[in-house]
Design a protein that fits this description.
The chain is α+β, with helices and mostly antiparallel strands and 135 residues long. The protein contains 3 helices and 4 strands; from the N terminus they run H-H-H-E-E-E-E. 23% of the residues lie in helices and 36% in strands. The two termini are 26 Å apart.
Length: 135
């Protein structure tokens, strides 16, 4: 999926179309600059969808300021995102959560698998991605 067609299946893997799922979060951000993911798992899924759609502004905005890179690079030409599987979402307390996931992609005929446990923090009522452990 390289379009933000609201009727297309959502890249995050939930059984909703993009407009009902991650698209709502992305479009709200594009329209107002507000970050509205209700929990860390929804933020993780919306970030995966943002990677699929190359929404670099959204990815940077959802990265915690303490770990946020200054820039991100667009997807390499030919990169195909194949799917996301959320393995676990653990709310540690009101402001911290972990999300374990596997994201699959393909580039140049070679398959890739990213397995990560990501850390999230809620600040000012907004969830942010902090960092993650690969493996």
């Amino acid at each position: 999926m390289t379009t933000t067609d609201k009727q297309s299946p959502c890249p995050c893997g939930r059984p909703f179309n993009y407009g009902q799922c991650c698209g709502r979060i992305h479009h709200q951000f594009a329209a107002t600059g507000e970050l509205t993911a209700p929990d860390a798992e929804a933020l993780m899924r919306s970030r995966y969808s943002a990677y699929v759609l190359d929404l670099l502004d959204y990815l940077l905005a959802t990265w915690h300021p303490s770990t946020r890179p200054t820039t991100l690079t667009s997807n390499e030409p030919g990169l195909q995102w194949l799917g996301l599987q959320v393995k676990k979402h653990v709310r540690q307390d009101a402001e911290h959560a972990l999300v374990a996931f596997v994201a699959r992609s393909k580039l140049g005929g070679r398959a890739y698998r990213l397995s990560e446990t990501s850390r999230f923090e809620r600040a000012g009522g907004v969830w942010f991605y902090i960092d993650g452990d690969i493996g």
